[in-house]
Amino acid sequence: MENQPKLNIARRRFLTAATLGASGMALTGCDAFDSLLGSDATVRNALEKANNLTYRVQRMLLGENSLAQEFAESDIRQPQRPNGVTNPEDADYVAMTANKFADYKLEIAGLVDKPRSFTLADLKSMPSRTQITRHDCVEGWSCIAKWTGTPVAAVLDQVAVKDKARYLLIDCFDTIDQSLSGSIKYYESIDLHDARHPQTILAWGMNGADLPVANGAPVRMRVERQLGYKQAKYIRKITLVDDFKPFGEGNGGYWEDNGYDWYGGI
Amino acid sequence: MTTAILRTENSKGELIYRQNRWTRSTHWTWALCLFFLLMSGLQIFNAHPTLYFGKQSGFGFDNAVLSINAIDVDGKAQGVTNILGAKFNTTGVFGVSGTEENPVYRAFPPALTIPSYYDLGTARVIHFFFAWLLVGTLFIWAVAGLWNGHIRRDLAISGADLKSLPKDIADHARLRFHHTGRYNVLQKIAYGGVLFVLFPAIILTGLAMSPGMDAVLPFLNNLLGGRQTARTIHFIAMFLLVAFFVIHMVMILAAGPINELRSIVTGWYRTDPASKDGSH
To answer: What are the distances in angstroms from CA B122 to CA A261, B48, B115, B129?
Structure first.
């Protein structure tokens, strides 16, 4: 008799779950699976393992220097579509726009032997690379533009990266979100393999002119073999790290903290 | 009465073992994969509900072939599906769904997406997991099918098959089905079309959308007419797979659901009395 109520509750729960499941499948489709797919749900975490497989297989298939496709001038048919933050209102950023980023300094720090800062003029005085590439947004759209910038490999050579370093942690000026503990600034990370790729540049020019504010002035990242959210805009500082877990919420980028894959090659 | 009973008894043909374990297990794995791939794929589509033709998406020019949007008409939201310039009011299903008090402004409604709420990141996680599973299963199926002769014996279209095509079409049109140990030619065309045309097409166009794979296989994108064309073909292949599924279900219901379901679950299939030896 003691067990009776418990059984009833269990049975009621089962029936409710079964009814919800069935109606979910038949009527409102797939909210039946919603409870399994929250940001830290076990099922989602298990499915997410497939992304590691994608990363490993693509790394295996991608030669050290196999290039993203480059296009002809005639393929530039429209301005580069800006998205994400397009006009940062952060005070330190706004202050720099007054004199066209003459006071801009890109700080390179972390696991390097010779940390230093680069002004926009410093970057522009280095050998540059120009490439016409296709920007693929995670949402599904694509846009072709011409990017000019300083190869990240050249910048890394100047600061002498320590052997321990594995990732570039890229901090940006723009506030993209608010949390209880304050404003969240955009950040990203890429591994050294991608950082040293010949097409990976700190872009300061676009379609033959200075990089516009909407597209990430004064300097943005181009990592051509990955999706748009990896192409951080309004870059403030690059830190060489051996692990990105201590930063942000630990997933290696603002969008990664919000559920996107760290590896944006697919 | 008596004759009817006799006929029923006579029509109980022999049970034959038609679907081997490889066919059955891969079939059900694909069914699972396609369910989740479809629902998560529609969620991914919702992130940018326009398809284009070419290398890029036209924002400064128009190369859209399909779009599903919510527009404002005299203060009321209307779902509009635009296919090659032809506009259809799809309010309630595509573009705008939900109730008047709680409208959902999304291309595909929550009932057709996983998760039901908007979450591109999670939809991608689900989509790529089942994409790997689908490709892995296709590989296992191909190896097993070549090894045990399933592909050559059951799917390859012979001269005799082609000769029987008109009769087979006529039979299907009259819903007159023959239950034998072999697939008829329309079945071979349908299954072969899925396995050798639609699966490769949807996998290759999927790969062509990956910026990483584009660097590995640059020719793939050019071959397919650009990343946005690949995305459109991916969507069309999805639509054809859904069409296949609908026909597949109708045929199963028409040809005898118990027998058809038994054969794909247990392998055992009851043939017509006329074909006890399992042949025509």
So the answer is: 9, 16, 7, 11
Query: Looking at residue A65, what is its pLDDT?
Result: 77
Distance from CA of B220 to the nearest CA of A (A): 11
A45-54 long-range contacts (CB < 8 A, ≥24 apart) are A47/B125, A47/B126, A47/B129, A48/A261, A48/B125, A48/B129, A49/B129, A50/B125, A50/B128, A50/B129, A50/B131, A50/B132, A51/A261, A51/A262, A51/A263, A51/B125, A51/B128, A53/B132, A54/A261, A54/A263, A54/A265, A54/A266, A54/B128, A54/B132
Of A67, A134, A139, nearest to B47 by CB-CB distance is A139
Which B residues, 116 through 175, put their C-beta within 8 Å of a C-beta on chain A?
116-117, 119-122, 124-126, 128-129, 131-132
Within an 8 Å CB–CB cutoff, is residue A111 touching chain B?
Answer: no
Residues of chain B neighbouring A60 (CB-CB closer than 8 A)? none
Report yes or no: B47 at the A interface, CB cutoff 8 Å: yes
Q: Of all helices (H) and strands (E), which one includes residue A142?
A: strand A142-151
Chain A residues in contact with B228 (beta carbon < 8 A): 141-142
- The pLDDT tens digits along chain B (280 residues) read 333 333 444 557 889 998 999 999 999 999 999 999 999 999 999 999 999 999 999 999 999 999 999 999 998 999 999 999 999 999 999 999 998 888 999 999 999 999 999 999 999 999 999 999 999 999 999 999 999 999 999 999 999 999 999 999 999 989 889 898 889 999 999 999 999 999 999 999 999 999 999 999 999 999 999 999 999 999 999 999 999 999 999 999 999 999 999 999 999 999 988 644 444 4
Q: What is the pLDDT of residues B218-237, one digit of tens each?
A: 999 999 999 999 999 999 99
Contact A225 B211 (CB under 8 A): yes
- For A:205-244, CB contacts with B below 8 A are 224-227
Its pTM stands at: 0.90
User: What is the value of ipTM here, to two decimals?
Assistant: 0.89
Contacts with B50 from chain A: Cβ below 8 Å? 141
Q: Longest C-alpha distance within chain B, in Å?
A: 77
Task: Find, in chain B, the residue whose alpha carbon is nearest to that of A230.
Answer: B211
Count interface pairs A-B at CB distance under 8 A: 157
